[in-house]
Amino acid sequence: MPPAETSPAPKPAARRENRLRALDGLRLIAALMVAGYHYGGRDGEVVKAWGSSPRHQFPTLHNLFAYGCLGVQVFFVISGFVICMSGWGRPLRSFFASRASRLLPAYWAAIIIVTAVFTLPFVAYKAVSPSDALLNLTMLQQPLGVDRVLGVCWTLWAEVRFYALFALCIVLPGANRQRVILFCAGWTLAAAIAQGVNEPLLNMVLMPEYAPYFIGGVGLYLVHRNRRDAHAWGIVGVSWLIGQHYAVQRLWHAPNPEFFSTRSSFGIILVVTFGYVAVAAIALGWLHWANWRWLTVAGALTYPFYLVHEHLGWVVIKAYHRTLHLPSYGTFLATVATMLLLAWLLNQYVEKWLTPKLRTALSKPRP
């Protein structure tokens, strides 16, 4: 390992707070992008809620909503930035306690709520078995091949793997610039090799398809610490190049009337670029003026909103659109507002109560 080095002086507290508020706003934008995709940018179970394909409900916007799935890539770039920032100078126990207490309370509540709602006789969606619902509480349902309660939890499985890699390679030995640069370069190369040999175990651990976004976010945190760091900019640039490739490879297809919508490769690249540029603008301090207090609230609501919006959104869409006969766009807005209200309730009565208790319990040293 390279020798430890002296880190640049930390940014002024007020300025960092401003940047974090802008980052909170970006989180909410990414979550709303994903909600737009789930409500109006794809077929599947949501068709039962609308009574017909969202293509017919939103004849003008359904193609735009289809790009909303790329909000996940934006989330991953944000996550790379935030995890590097929160893990820098923090001991492993504290890092683990912080991540677990941040993820689990709202997640557990969402699992319980969605499972309970889907067991109601008037809800037309199949609930998972009791055993599978219990296993979902571990966040390990995907590698264990168990039915998911929350469709979005596949992204949490990617996040958990990133946390594990970062904890083992950076937090445990101690974060410094050289170590982080080697981590980013090594992960990029290893992920490319894993993709080349197509080894399932390596693919699961190294996540070639998602690694560029996490790595790009980590690189942008190095830029946040020193905007003249050429190595950091190199990490960001290479990650963007690889990330746009995977996004286009996965989401672009030739025009075909049998598909729900047609995304252009240019549009996909544009949305991925937006994610990197937006986080870069925050890292460079260009959005320090975005210091509105409501952005902190928006950031607090984003995670619980993201967890509950899809599956419970189907139930709410049906109630508003087919029972109360609200028009499509009114139903869309009312559903988003309802899910934000539920997210606020989860934040107020679950996260604010359980998160500090769980963090304290996990942070305590054991004899």
What does this structure look like?
The chain is 71% helix and 0% strand. With 367 residues, the protein is mostly helical. α9 runs parallel beside α12 and α12 (230-251) packs antiparallel against α13 (265-283). The longest helix has 36 residues, at 328-363. The chain starts with 12 loop residues before the first helix and ends with a helix. The relative contact order is 0.17. Mean pLDDT is 91; it is low at 1-19.
Low-confidence stretches: 1-19
The proportion of residues forming helix, as a percent range, comes to over 70%
Query: Count of helical segments?
Result: 15
Helix-strand topology string: HHHHHHHHHHHHHHH
What's the overall average pLDDT, rounded? 91
DSSP, total strands: 0
Indicate the proportion of strand residues: under 5%
What structural category characterises the helix and strand content? mainly alpha
Distance between the termini: 31 Å
Task: Describe the global form.
Answer: globular
Q: Profile the largest sheet.
A: none
- Computed Rg: 21 Å
